[in-house]
Design goal:
The chain is an all-alpha fold. Helices cover about 75% and strands about 0% of the residues. It holds the Pfam family BPD_transp_2.
């Protein structure tokens, strides 16, 4: 009996170890740690308090949007509009507050705008059968155009009577000297992880990504959940827009340009599968961290910043290759 118990414990330990070693997120974490160690010795500027503060703060904007994108990708969808939605939501907040309204009204208007865009995307995709790529690509153009219309394509840097409140919200450090955006990212990551891991809604999302037809047959409200995940994706972009506006202290119609590619890259590098059914909140954060470390390292090592796309693209290809190898091993 004792031998059987020992064998059972050993088997469980082996299973846990195998699961960790086969996890793409684990190896991305190792890559981030090794990169940080290398840069700490290779340059004097990397491990400074100021640089680490900037890195952690810069991670947050991509990471927050990547958390929302994770929901979409798990269902097998894609949202190319997040960068433009962030821009539009930032502009709605800025224009509303510039007109003299309070920060509460501005944030409410921003959230309503984000949810409306997400619902529009979701309805077209879930109920009318439009391809997610086409719908969100169209919204990418529409949202940025609306941002230009709302601001007359000008820079907004005066936020009315609550100007200082907004700057403190995005640029302050209220707890233990940790930048506020980092705190927001941690809170949102915990919420996302809880939803995906412990709620019926999260299980339904994975079911849709794994096999949408089977999910429908088992009674999963596929259409409603698809609308919900696109609303969550747009909401995450809206929240990132609020935070980034407070951090920058100004809004232009160029904000968020190309961000959708960084967000998708962070999600995929972190272990999400574009085919659906796989993804974690922690993976989205880790993927965003690797991208920011790559971006930061180029400048510190004196490498031309134009190489950034090459390194990030290479990381995406390696992530997809890792996923393919893992699937081949499982099939064998």
């Amino acid at each position: 009996m004792a031998v059987t118990l020992d064998q059972t414990i050993a088997q469980k330990q082996h299973t846990v170890l195998s699961r960790i070693l086969s996890s793409q997120t684990f190896w991305v974490v190792i890559a981030v740690i090794l990169a940080c160690l290398f840069l700490s010795f290779a340059t004097d500027a990397f491990a400074t308090q100021k640089n680490l503060y900037n890195i952690t703060r810069n991670i947050t904007f991509v990471a927050i949007v990547a958390l929302g994108m994770t929901f979409v990708i798990i269902t097998g969808g894609i949202d190319l509009s997040v960068g433009s939605v962030l821009c539009l939501c930032s502009m709605v907040l800025a224009v509303t507050m510039h007109a003299g309204y309070s920060i509460e009204v501005g944030i409410l208007a921003t959230i309503v705008t984000a949810l409306a865009i997400g619902a529009f995307n979701g309805v077209l995709i879930a109920y009318l059968g439009f391809p997610p790529f086409v719908v969100t690509l169209g919204m990418l153009s529409v949202a940025r155009s609306l941002a230009m219309v709302a601001s007359n394509n000008t820079v907004v840097f005066q936020f009315g009577p609550d100007h200082d409140k907004l700057l403190s919200l995005g640029g302050g450090a209220w707890l233990f000297g940790i930048a506020n955006p980092v705190l927001y990212m941690i809170i949102l990551a915990l919420i996302t992880g809880f939803i995906l891991r412990w709620t019926k809604f999260g299980r339904h999302i994975f079911a849709i990504g794994g096999n949408e037809h089977a999910a429908t047959l088992t009674g999963v409200p596929v259409r409603q959940i698809k609308v919900a995940v696109y609303m969550i994706s747009a909401l995450s972009a809206g929240l990132a827009g609020i935070i980034e506006t407070g951090w920058l202290g100004a809004v232009t119609t160029n904000i968020g340009t190309g961000m959708e590619l960084q967000v998708i890259a962070a999600t995929v590098i972190g272990g999400a599968n574009l085919a659906g059914g796989v993804g974690t909140a922690f993976g989205a954060i880790v993927g965003a961290a690797l991208i920011e470390v790559i971006r930061n390292s180029l400048g510190l090592l004196g490498i031309n910043a134009f190489w950034q796309g090459t390194f990030i693209g290479g990381a995406i290809l390696l992530a997809v290759l890792f996923d393919r190898i893992r699937n081949f091993r499982r099939s064998d």
